[in-house]
Each structure stands twice: as structure tokens, then as C-alpha cells.
Prior knowledge:
Helix content: 25-40%
Number of helices: 9
Radius of gyration: 25 Å
Bound molecules: zinc ion
Structural class: alpha+beta
Order of helices and strands: HHEEEEEHEHEEEEHEEEEEHEHEHEEH
Largest sheet: 8 strands, mixed
Number of strands: 19
Amino acid sequence: MLDLHADPIELTAALVDIRSESRDEARIADEVEAALRAQTSGFEIVRNGNAVLARTHLNRSSRVMLAGHLDTVPVADNLPSRLADGELHGCGTADMKSGDAVFLHLAATVAEPVHDLTVVMYDCEEIESAANGLGRIERELPDWLSADVAILGEPTGGYIEAGCQGTLRVVISATGTRAHSARSWLGDNAIHKLGAVLDRLAAYRARAVDIDGCEYREGLSAVRVDGGVAGNVIPDAASVTVNYRFAPDRSPDAALQHVHEVFDGLDVRIEQTDSAAGALPGLSQPAAKALVEAAGGQFRAKYGWTDVSRFAALGIPAVNFGPGDPNLAHTRGERVSVAAITAAVAMLRPYLGG
Length: 354
Ligand SMILES: [Zn+2]
């Protein structure tokens, strides 16, 4: 059986050695469930598909959720795990069984819980979002996802990463009149009209916004240009696609309004093709604030993510925090520094209660 009381480095290795590619998490979920039932006290435990959920009912004034996925990307000749030069190598070491091990170990060993604790170990994070175990839990067991702050153990190199930027795309189109390029004065060149659009983009000064101590750097960028008919034709249509990455203090509607202001007065049409809201870090709430203090400044904005945004949509401040290096996730050479595992436990333990 997994030993949740063992050193979390050994627990990481034990979890890594239970192969658990997406949709094949039954065995690891069985092992995690059995260990939680045998080695923790005071937790209500339920099984949902290949997810395992555990929570305390201590009537504390706040609840902290520790969430991690149990699945990995396909194994790449990198199992079983192997310890060398202070690093544990193998599929899932960074993404994110080291994070899972930290959370499971803390659930079993926190002496004086300051917050009620919910642990969610879920399936199918590495594949299409319709299969995501957290999404299924949201549909089937929504009350299990209430918390004052959620910590996801995705690899962040030991930083707390919070909030995320929004994104939208617009196609900015110019129209003109087609003509033979030998008699160009008879036409009206749509490509030339894009010059004014590109000038505005080049002169644009993007905001850097501070929210709850996280700096979000915006960006307004041309990402594609379309136009032209033939080598001897004045073109009557041309467009530039612009991507705006905006800080989460702006809604998608406000962001679109801003894009219209930037290009105000130009002879072009602006059409939005997609947008996704950002997420405020929400770290001014007490349980989240205490986490920031515990992190001692190892703290930064997150520019893109998946599952933390689910919590943001539920109104729960959520952060990523895990010992893995995000650059090593999904690689053949995936590994995690064992010192980072120890450091993650050392950071979270006083926050959770010794
Ligand atoms: Zn992951």
C-alpha cells in the first residue's frame, strides 16, 4: 500500500511507478483511495469514477482545497522512476505526481489543521476537456468544490501562480476598389489602408497592471495578414488579425471596447472572432492572503492555464503551486528535483497547520 506518512519523495516515486495514462487511472485511484481510508483520520472520503475525494468537517472558518490530477501523458520509455543526482526521473514526476504526493502527505500528517481541508485527486486532465474529471465532479458532486482557496499542484517551479489573462481576436478588414495595377489611380488599394492599422499597433503601449501583487502584462499584436488578388491587380480587400491578451481587470466586452478605441477613426471594419475571459487572482480574501504570506514572495501572475480557470468561474480564488518545472512536463526527460518536493511541503505545512 502507498505510505502517505513516508517521505513525500518516496511517495512521489511510488505514485510514478503506478502507470496511469489518461483513462487508465483505475489502479492508481484504488491505491490512493485505500491509503486515504487507512491512513488519514477525520476525512469523509468518496470515490467518483477514477477520482478520489476527501474532506474534513472541523467547522473551521475557511476551507482549503488541494487538487491534483492522477493521470499522465503517454509513457515515453521513462518508467519505472529512477533517482539520480538529486532528481527523480520518470513520466509524471513533474506533471504532477510530485504535487499529488505533497498534498496526500500533508492530508495525512498536518497536526493542527487551521483550515478545513478538501483533497481532490482526479482523472483525465491531460486529454480533451469534456473528459476532465474535475468537470465531472462539478456536474455530479458540486458541493465538493466549495472552498475559500484552491491550490492545484501543477508544476510551477515552486512559485505560486495566480490569475490568468483574457484573450480575444479581431479581424480588422479594409475594403477598396479593384483595378489593373497599370492604371492604379482607377483603384483604391485595400492593403495600403492596413498601413494605418499597423502604425497604431506599432505605436501602442500595452498596459502592465498590478492586481493583488501580480503584474499582468498585456499585449496587442498582429498575428496574421491576409490580402492580395494577383501580381497585377489593385486589391479590394485586405485584413489583419489582431490578438489582444488583456489583464483580468477587463471583461471581454471592455476589452473589445478598448480595441475599438485603439483603431477609432480608421477606414476599417472590426469583427471579433473569439474571446475568453481572464480570471482575477482574488488573493485579497483571508485564506488566499495567508497563502501568499506563506509563500514569502515566491509569487507571480499566470498567463495561461486550464483547470484553475474552472475555480475562478466558480468564484473561488485558485492558484497553481507544485514542485515540478513546467518546462519538463510532457517531455521524455521528465524529472523533478527532490529538494523542490521537500520545499513544497515545508512551505505548505505551516499554512495548513503544522
Ligand atoms: Zn498537469
